[in-house]
Every structure is written in structure tokens, then in C-alpha cells.
Specification:
Rossmann fold; 243 residues; alpha/beta
């Protein structure tokens, strides 16, 4: 299958990052890395391999980018205020820079993008769908960590409020909520080592209160918070959503 790598300077983030695409035709899927992972993490951990039938069948194109906000959270030397700023700016980069590039690559100004990710990647997938439902149609959230407050010291800033669905969904209304209510969120989690399916249920309950279609799939105690779980989950769900 084809692979295209692009080095991208984002003025919003004030730095360069890598964007990678696999496949040539099909529904665009923006797949976020875990934590501070890079754009090619999903290839090294064989996610692209297990998606090969969907890619080679022309059903999906997969895009990924460096997790700049996650890196800022993991690196030392940054204040919590700066980390929350980076999270907001990263989401702005996705919506205002990366989505237009994906649509241009797909030769469509209006095509909807499926967003997906595992762990912190699931947080990003849920956040951009809920924040920008004009750009995204589905979120496939695997083993998600959705409450980020514990990662920051001090009071949440506006940057965190606008970046975190657990914060901004309660007050969401108007046309953004109306459009979000036509979207779909899939929250899957194991219940094995390092998993917390309660995070998925908390997000699901809030989505349900706002009338947003969603589903929680618990895979049970045999599935840990790790790549083998996500390699099994993601092809199944993308197959379901791209028929």
C-alpha cells in the first residue's frame, strides 16, 4: 500500500511535526497516537498491518500526526498552564490545518473524517469530534482516558475547558450540539490490566445526557490496556463503520 510522509510547520503550535498517510482512496480516518507518540507509532505497533485489508480494499485512508500536546504533557519543564495551552492549540491545528489538508487530499471540501485512537489518543478522538462535529462523523475510542484533570496542577484554565469534553459538553448547545447529535461515538475498553472501563461509562453517560448517539463495548478481563487489544478492536470497528 502507498505511504506518504509530510513535514509540517504549524504556526499554532510553533513547531514542526510529521503527518503520514497510508492508502490512496476510501473514507479518511485520522488515527491519533497514544500519549506523546509520533505519527508512525501506529505502523511500528502493527496497526497498519491489521488494517491492511481495509486499506488495500480502498475502504479507508489512514492519517496520523505527531502527538505534540501529549509530548508537552510528558516532558518536564512546562507549567500546567502551558500544557493546557498546548492541548487547545493541538486541537486547533487538527481542525484548522490538518482537516483542510485531508479534505484537499481526498479532493472534497466537505468529506467527513472518522477519528480514532487509544488511551490518550481516544481522548483526542472524542474531543475533536465533540468540539468540531462539522469535520468529524464518528469517534472510535479505545481504552480511553478522558479525565485529564489529574495530569495538571492547579485550577483548570479556559484552554483545558474548551479542549476537554468532560468539561465543555455540559454547557454545549446550539448548532454545534445539534450537529453532534447526528454523529456517533464508540467507546471500547477491556477490563484487564491497567484498563478502566469506568472512564468509558462516564463519557458515555455525559454524551447520553446531551443526546449524542454512543455505545460502550466492554471486552472483559482478558483484554489489557495494550497494543494487542487495540490491534483486535480497531479493524473490527472500522469494518463496521465503513460498510
Amino acid at each position: 500500500m502507498s505511504k506518504l510522509k509530510t513535514s509540517w510547520y504549524s504556526e499554532r503550535l510553533g513547531q514542526e511535526l510529521l503527518v503520514v498517510r497510508w492508502g490512496e482512496v476510501g473514507t479518511p480516518v485520522l488515527l491519533f497516537p497514544t500519549a506523546g507518540g509520533d505519527a508512525e507509532e501506529i505502523e511500528r505497533f502493527h496497526i497498519i498491518d491489521v488494517l491492511a485489508p481495509l486499506l488495500e480494499g480502498g475502504r479507508i485512508k489512514v492519517y496520523s500526526c505527531d502527538s505534540i500536546a501529549g509530548r508537552t504533557m510528558l516532558q518536564g519543564g512546562h507549567s500546567s498552564e502551558h500544557q493546557m495551552w498546548a492541548l487547545n492549540q493541538f486541537q486547533q491545528f487538527v481542525y484548522r490545518e490538518l482537516v483542510p489538508a485531508i479534505r484537499n487530499d481526498c479532493q472534497s471540501e466537505s468529506i467527513g473524517v472518522i477519528t480514532a485512537g487509544a488511551s490518550i489518543g481516544a481522548f483526542n478522538a472524542l474531543a475533536v469530534l465533540c468540539r468540531f462535529p462539522d469535520a468529524f462523523t464518528h469517534a472510535v475510542c479505545l481504552s480511553g482516558t478522558y479525565d485529564l484533570d489529574r495530569f495538571f496542577e492547579g485550577r483548570p484554565t479556559e484552554d483545558l475547558y474548551f479542549s476537554s469534553p468532560l468539561h465543555f459538553l455540559r454547557g454545549l448547545g446550539g448548532s454545534t450540539l445539534s450537529r453532534l447529535q447526528t454523529r456517533f461515538v464508540l467507546l471500547a475498553s477491556g477490563e484487564g490490566q491497567a484498563e478502566n472501563v469506568g472512564e468509558s461509562w462516564r463519557a458515555a453517560n455525559l454524551l447520553g445526557e446531551k443526546g449524542v448517539p454512543n455505545r460502550v463495548d466492554s471486552w472483559g478481563p482478558d483484554w489489557p490496556h495494550d497494543w494487542p487489544t487495540w490491534r483486535k478492536m480497531l479493524p473490527q470497528y472500522l469494518d463496521e463503520l465503513t460498510h
